[in-house]
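Researcher: Please translate sequence to C-alpha cells.
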Amino acid sequence: MTTDRRNRGWYGKLDRDGFIHRSWMKNQGFPDHAFDGRPIIGICNTWSELTPCNSGLRELAEGVKRGVWEAGGFPVEFPVMSLGETQMKPTAMLFRNLLAMDVEESIRAYGMDGVVLLGGCDKTTPGQLMGAASVDLPSIVVSSGPMLNGKWQGKDIGSGTDVWKFSEAVRAGEMTLQDFMAAESGMSRSKGVCMTMGTASTMASLVEAMGMSLPTNAALPAVDARRMALAHLTGKRIVEMVEEDLKPSDILTKEAFENAILANAAVGGSTNAVVHLLALAGRVGVDLSLEDFEIGSEIPLLVNCMPSGKYLMEDFCYAGGMPVVLQELGDRLRKARTVLGGDIAAYAEGAECWNRDVIRSMDDPLKPAAGLRVLRGNLAPRGAIVKPSAATDALLEHEGEAYVFESIEDLKANIDREDLPVTAETILVLKGCGPKGYPGMPEVGNMPIPRKLVREGVRDMIRVSDARMSGTAFGTVILHVSPEANDGGTLALVKTGDRIRVSARNGVLELLVDEAELEARRAAWTPEPPHYTRGYAKMYIDHVLQADQGADLDFLVGKDTRPVTRESH
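Model: Translation complete:
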C-alpha cells in the first residue's frame, strides 16, 4: 500500500478508525481494492436547480469520474453551497466567501488527495478556487460552459446585455411588453452560464489563461459533447497531478495573475474579475494590487463578444476560443506553469482562428486599448475601476454635476421622476452599495438612465458607485469606489450639485469640493446602522475587506496547509 498519500490517514489504517472510515464508505458498494492507497479525488460540485447556470454539472461529474477511474484513482463527489447570481437575494456576492469556507473546510476535513472544482455561475468559480487554494491540494477546474446563443425574431440575443437594452427600449416606448416577454422565452435555450462575455465566461476564460483548467475549457458550450470529453480528460489529469504533487501554489504565481489580467483585457472581460483575482491572490500569498491591472490598459480588445462586441460565446468557441487569444497575446504572456505541468504557451500551440470577425488579430483589433482602468483621487483614494471597452469614449474624459442617490431604495423610488433635475451631462452617484453597505456589493452600479432622458435618446451617462455591475452590462460606469460610503469613504460625503471630474486617460476621479468643506461634512457624517445583526451576514459585515483588497474576509486571507491530526472517533 502506498504510504505517502493523504488519504492513508483515513483509509489506510488497520485499526478501529480505519475500519470505520472504510466500512461506512462500503455501504455505497465500493470494493476492498478501492481503498488500496490509490489517489482519492474529490469532485467538488456546485450543482443546483436553483443555480440554472450549474444545472448541467451532475452530468459533467460523471465524465470526471470516468477519467479518474481510468487513471487508477477513486472519485468521490461532494456538494458545496451553490451561488445562483440571477436567483439569490440580496446578492450572490455576499456568499462568495461562505462558499470559499465551505470548499476549504470540506477539502480539509475529508480524506481526498486532489480535487476537481465543478462550477460556472459567476461567484462559484472564484469561491471554489479561493477555498481550494487555501488548502493547496492538487486542484483543477471544469466549468459548466455557456448556454447556446439566445434566439428571438430570427436573430441572436445575449443574456444580460440584451436584457438591459430591451428593458430601456420598453421604458422609452420603443418596444412592446409583448415583445419583451417573447424575448424572455428565447433567451435561455439550454443549460449553462450566460452566453455573453459576462462574469461567468470571463472567469472561465481567466482560469484557462492562468493554467488552472485544460485548454478549451472557457468556451465549449455546456451541451456540447466535447465538454463531457473535457471533463473525462480532466478526471484523468487530476490523478496524474496528485502523482506529481502539482498544487495551486505551483500554478497561481504572480505571472499567472498577470496573464489573467492581460487575457481579461483581450476578451473584454468583466470588471468583477478585479475583485475575484485580488481575493484569490490574497489566498495564495501573491502580492497583487489594483496597480497591477494597469498592465492590461494597452492590450487591444480582440474578442468581439457582448457586451463589448456583437457575438456570443458559442461563436467564440467555433472561432477557436481561448487558445487563439493566447496565441495572439504571444510573447506578452508571462512564463507560467499550468495543470499540464508545462508553460502556458503550450495552450496556444497549433491554435487556428476560424472567424477573424469574432477573434481579431493584434494587428486588427476591435478597439486599440481595452484593459480596465484604475481611477484614483479624493473620491476614491484607494481606487475605483472603469471598463473602457464597454463605455462611451466621449464620457471617459468628463466633468459634471452630481445627482446623488443615498441608497438603492432612493434610486428605485426616484430614477423615473419626470422632474428629476438631471441632463445627459449629469453624473449619477449611488451610495450604500459596497461590501458592508448593501451588504455584499451587488451588481447595481450600472444604474438605469432616468426615464425622461431615455425618451430623449440618451443611452449612456457617467455613473459612480461603490457597487459592482454585471459582466454582461455596459456603459460608462465607475465601480468599486474604495473606501465605500458605509466605511466612511469620501463617497459618503458627496451632495447633489457637487462637481466631479473623471479622466480615464489620467486615472483620475476627483470630487471638486475644497478640503475644508469635506472635513466639515465628515465631522457631521454618521454611519448607517447595519442591515443584518445575526448569522453569517453579520460576520461578513464585521470582517469583510474593501473592494481594493478583494472583499474577502480578513481572517481568511492566506492559506493553511497543516495536516488534520485529530481523529473523528
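Researcher: Any highlights?
Model: The chain has a mean pLDDT of 95.
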